[in-house]
Amino acid sequence: MPSPIPVERFLPRDLSPSIDLRPCSSPLELSRSKPGAFLSRRPAAAPRLPPRLAWCSIDWEQVRVLEPLGSGGFGSVYRATYRGQTVALKKVKRCSKNRLASRQSFWGELNAACLRHPHVVRVLAASACCPGDPGSPGTIIMEYAGNSTLHQRIYGRGPPLEKDCCVRYARHVADGLCFLHRGGVVHLDLKPANVLLAPGDLCKIGDFGCSQRLRDAEDGENPCCTQLRHLGGTYTHRAPELLRGQPVTAKADIYSYAVTVWQMVTRELPYTGDRQCVLYAVVAYDLRPEVGQLFHGTEAGRALGDIVQNCWLPRPEDRPSAEQLLQRLGFFSVPGTLLHLFWLRIEKSPPPGSADSEWLTPSQSQSVLDELIKSDSFLVAIGSFQKALQPTVAMIS
Question: Is the pTM of the predicted complex or chain greater than 0.85?
Answer without folding.
Answer: no
